[in-house]
Backbone:
C-alpha cells in the first residue's frame, strides 16, 4: 500500500555538504546506476556515516562529476560485471535502474526495453550481497509493472513528489525496507525562489510573434554575443508564443501557453486553445509555480528543462537552476559542460528526498552495529 500523506519533516534541513561523513565503523554502500553520486550527498545530509562507497556507472561525464566531488569513490564499472562475492559486506544497496522503458513519456516497452531489464541486475546483486537495507528508485509506471518490481523486492513502493522539497514536479516510486514514516513536509518552494536573477539580458530572443496578417507584434532582442538560454536566437527560426488561459495543475505547474513555428498549424480542442494543444517540450510555464520534471531525454523547443516565463523573458533553465531543482550543491556539476550537466541532473535523484529516506536509518541501533573490514583487499 502506498504512503500518500502524513507530513514528517526532515530530521535536519541540511546545508550543502560535500565532505563525506566517513569512518571505520560506517556503512559499506553499493550504489548501482550511480550517476553523479547523489546518494553520497544524501548520506551526508542525513548524517549517515559510511566507510566505503562502491559505485557502478558507465557514463564518463557523470563519473567525472562524482570523482571531482568525492575522489574516494570506488568505481566498479558496468553493473553486469559486478559479482557480489568480490565485495565486502554491503550494508546498504541503492540504485535507480534506467526508467525509459517504464516512463509514460516514452514508448512504454517496459521489460522488453533492454535498459529496463537492468532492474534484474539490481535484484541479482541484492540476492548476492544480502544488504541490511536497500533502496530502488524508478518512475511512475503502470500498476502491472509496479507489481512485478514489488514482487521481486518484497516491498510496496512509497510515492514521493519532489515538489515537497523542491521547485520541481517529479513523481517517483521508492522501493525500500528502510522504515520510512510519512512524507517530507511541503517547503512551498516555487521556481521563482530558486531562479537566477538578472538574466533578462542574457541573449534571450523570441524573434517575433505575428498576427493573422503576418505582422510582428512582439520581439525580443539578442544582447551582444553572450551565451543564450533562449528558446531561440536571431540565427534560428522565428517562434510564436501562443497564450492560453492560465492553467494550474495539482502538481503545482502553472501553464501560460506554448511556442510554435509560424509554419505549424494550430489546432483547437472543441474550439478552445488548451495546454494540451502543446507538447510538454513546447509549453511555457510560469515561475510562480513549479517546474516540469527535468528529463535527460526529452525533446521539443524547451529541451531537457522546459520553458518558463521568468522576469518577463521566456527561456530554458540554467545549469545552476537545474542543480537547485535537484537540491544538489550549487556548482556541483561545474567539472563538465552545461549540456552534459543538465543531462546528468535529469538522470539524477532529488537529493533532499533521498536524504529524507536515509534519515530513518538512524532509528534503532542500526548505525551502532558496524565492525567489519571494508575493503575488497581485506577480503582476500
Residues:
Amino acid at each position: 500500500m502506498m504512503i500518500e500523506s502524513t507530513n514528517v519533516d526532515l530530521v535536519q534541513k541540511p546545508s550543502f555538504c560535500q565532505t563525506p561523513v566517513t569512518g571505520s565503523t560506517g556503512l559499506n554502500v553499493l550504489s548501482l546506476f550511480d550517476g553523479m553520486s547523489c546518494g553520497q550527498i544524501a548520506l551526508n545530509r542525513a548524517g549517515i556515516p559510511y566507510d566505503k562507497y562502491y559505485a557502478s556507472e558507465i557514463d564518463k561525464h557523470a563519473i567525472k562529476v562524482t570523482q571531482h566531488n568525492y575522489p574516494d569513490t570506488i568505481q566498479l564499472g558496468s553493473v553486469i560485471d559486478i559479482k557480489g562475492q568480490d565485495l565486502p559486506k554491503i550494508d546498504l544497496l541503492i540504485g535507480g535502474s534506467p526508467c525509459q522503458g517504464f516512463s509514460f513519456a516514452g514508448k512504454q516497452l517496459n521489460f522488453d526495453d533492454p535498459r529496463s531489464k537492468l532492474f534484474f541486475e539490481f535484484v541479482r546483486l541484492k540476492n548476492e550481497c544480502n544488504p541490511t537495507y536497500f533502496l530502488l528508485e524508478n518512475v511512475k509506471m503502470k500498476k502491472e509493472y509496479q507489481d512485478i518490481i514489488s514482487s521481486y523486492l518484497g516491498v510496496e513502493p512509497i510515492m514521493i513528489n519532489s515538489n515537497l522539497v523542491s521547485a520541481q514536479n517529479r513523481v517517483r516510486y521508492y522501493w525500500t525496507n528502510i522504515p520510512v514514516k510519512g512524507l517530507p513536509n511541503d517547503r512551498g518552494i516555487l521556481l521563482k525562489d530558486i531562479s537566477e536573477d538578472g538574466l533578462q539580458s542574457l541573449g534571450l530572443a523570441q524573434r517575433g510573434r505575428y498576427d493573422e496578417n503576418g505582422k510582428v507584434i512582439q520581439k525580443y532582442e539578442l544582447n551582444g554575443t553572450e551565451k543564450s538560454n533562449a528558446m531561440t536566437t536571431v540565427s534560428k527560426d522565428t517562434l510564436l508564443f501562443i497564450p492560453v488561459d492560465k492553467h494550474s495543475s495539482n502538481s503545482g505547474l502553472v501553464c501560460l501557453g506554448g511556442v510554435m513555428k509560424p509554419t505549424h498549424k494550430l489546432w483547437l480542442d472543441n474550439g478552445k486553445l488548451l495546454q494540451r494543444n502543446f507538447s510538454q517540450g513546447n509549453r511555457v510555464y510560469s515561475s510562480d509555480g513549479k517546474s516540469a520534471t527535468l528529463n535527460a531525454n526529452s525533446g521539443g523547443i524547451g529541451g531537457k528543462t522546459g520553458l518558463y516565463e521568468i522576469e518577463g523573458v521566456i527561456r530554458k533553465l540554467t545549469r545552476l537552476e537545474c542543480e537547485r531543482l535537484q537540491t544538489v550543491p550549487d556548482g556541483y556539476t561545474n567539472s563538465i559542460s552545461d549540456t552534459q550537466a543538465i543531462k546528468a541532473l535529469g538522470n539524477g535523484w532529488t537529493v533532499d528526498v533521498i536524504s529524507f529516506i536515509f534519515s530513518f536509518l538512524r532509528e534503532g541501533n542500526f548505525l551502532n552495529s558496524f565492525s567489519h573490514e571494508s575493503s575488497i583487499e581485506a577480503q582476500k
Notes: The CA atoms of residues 83 and 128 lie 8 Å apart. Helices lie at 38-45, 60-69, 119-129, 143-153, 191-194, 319-325, 338-347, 351-358.
